[in-house]
Specification:
This protein is α/β, with parallel strands linked by helices. It contains nine helices and 23 strands. 22% of the residues lie in helices and 26% in strands.
Length: 433
């Protein structure tokens, strides 16, 4: 039996399923492509989806037929709400989406009015306008998409908005926030990336609180940088504002998955009192200079991790495939096995920069302590100080669209452009819990 079609059920119908003494009621939902053919997926009144196996013990009735969904509205020409003018740029993810219960689909909120249906308090914080640049899954993000997002952000900056919020899937949000920090320089206003760990149709969603925190930061923060706004802890009390070149997603599902690495968050936001508290005063101030777009990212850059047993043929393959840059997350201080050093030398001799970071994340690359590191330096690698591996990957990709001259690549990789490198570390930057 093909469910739900063979039962005469359409997605969006309100149905009741009886299995013995158990009764389920909910909206018939689309099935995942890997769902069993005899499984009916329904959304319960609690907001959660369940799958019910339809067999000889089950009876199903339609309580109410679906209503036809309203025609998709065009993006409003006029902002909604009052306060500072904030541009919302949508790229995907669940935070700026809503469940269309007529069909059961999750779709982007394509207008300010629809966004306010999800997060009505936003209208009390700012005057918002919405532009959907793309709607993709976070894992499908690519350097070419960074360029489109950078163009949209730059256009909004020179148009006169007082802040920008970018909705984004969480899995690669740190990469994109870092990319924008390099591509759009001399910002006059904050660019605040925000996502949610739990989808907007779940009772435990963090979408609304994260978005409110991002909107407060975009409209009131004294800094003008690319940042990420996400839960500071597992409760709903504070939103942390992390520098885009310093943030990493550190947990698959926790609300406070995003952490600043080798740095403190720039600020924290109380979403209820609507207050912003500065933690790190070393930031680019709002309103200074004129924004400049330095767009473009080299696609043929690789990020690989060193591991016990890694073979030099992996790097040889990248050289032979004409990759233009390689970032390696080495062990400890940034080491790779000694047997890889001749291949690293070959890469550099063929004009391919090799940037070294540490997979420990916290701390700084130091290739002067052990013999292996010194031999790596002699081979010509670039030790990337305390940069995150993904930030180094983004930065090298950005640099290689500007120059391929190895000395200039090295100089730029070791120049602190967007807060990606620290000159010194405080002991309390290491997160122990």
């Amino acid at each position: 039996m093909k469910i739900p079609e063979d039962l005469g059920i359409e997605v969006g119908d309100l149905v009741r399923v009886r299995k013995g003494d158990i009764v389920y009621e909910g909206i018939a939902m689309p099935k995942h492509s890997y769902s069993a053919p005899d499984m009916l997926v329904i959304k319960l009144g609690s907001g959660y989806n369940i799958g019910v196996k339809i067999d000889s013990t089950a009876s199903v009735e339609v309580i109410r037929r679906r209503t036809e969904p309203q025609k998709q509205r065009e993006i409003s020409a006029n902002p909604v709400g009052s306060g500072p003018a904030i541009k919302i740029i949508g790229t995907g993810g669940t935070i700026a989406s809503k469940v269309e219960y007529e069909t059961g689909a999750v779709k982007p909120a394509m207008s300010p009015e629809e966004l306010l249906e999800i997060i009505p308090e936003a209208s009390e914080i700012a005057s918002i306008d919405v532009e959907i640049i793309m709607s993709i899954l976070s894992e499908n993000m690519e350097p070419g998409y960074w360029e489109r997002i950078a163009e949209g952000i730059y256009r909004s900056m020179i148009t006169g908005y007082e802040g920008i919020v970018v909705t984004h899937g969480t899995d690669t949000m740190g990469y994109t926030a870092s990319a924008i920090a390099f591509a759009v320089q001399d910002m006059k206003i904050p660019v605040v990336f925000v996502g949610s760990q739990r989808s907007s149709d779940r009772p435990s969603t963090d979408a609304a609180i994260n978005f409110v925190g991002a909107l407060i930061a975009a409209s009131r923060a004294p800094f003008a940088e690319s940042v990420v706004a996400m839960h500071a802890d597992t409760s709903d009390t504070e939103i942390a504002i992390h520098r885009g070149t310093r943030v990493r997603k550190m947990h698959t599902s926790r609300r406070d998955a995003f952490q600043s690495i080798n740095a403190r968050p720039i600020a924290k936001v109380d979403p209820y009192r609507r207050e912003l508290r500065i933690i790190d005063s070393d930031y680019r101030p709002r309103g200074k200079g004129e924004p400049k777009l330095f767009n473009g990212f080299e696609r043929k850059v690789a990020l690989i991790y060193s591991y016990p047993g890694i073979e030099s043929e992996i790097i040889d393959m990248l050289i032979d495939k004409r990759y233009r840059g390689i970032v390696i997350a080495g062990t400890g201080f940034g080491h790779v096995p000694e047997k890889l050093i001749p291949t690293l030398r070959r890469a550099v001799e063929e004009g391919i920069p090799v940037a070294i970071t540490s997979q420990t994340l916290y701390g700084r690359v130091n290739l002067m302590i052990y013999t292996t590191g010194r031999e790596m330096l002699r081979a010509g690698v670039i030790p990337c100080e305390d940069m995150l591996p993904e930030t180094a990957y983004v930065k090298l990709s950005w640099i290689l669209r500007r120059t391929r001259e190895l000395d200039e690549v090295r100089r730029l990789m070791l120049t602190n452009i967007a807060g990606e490198i620290s000159t010194r570390h405080n002991i309390d930057l290491y997160r122990k819990t």
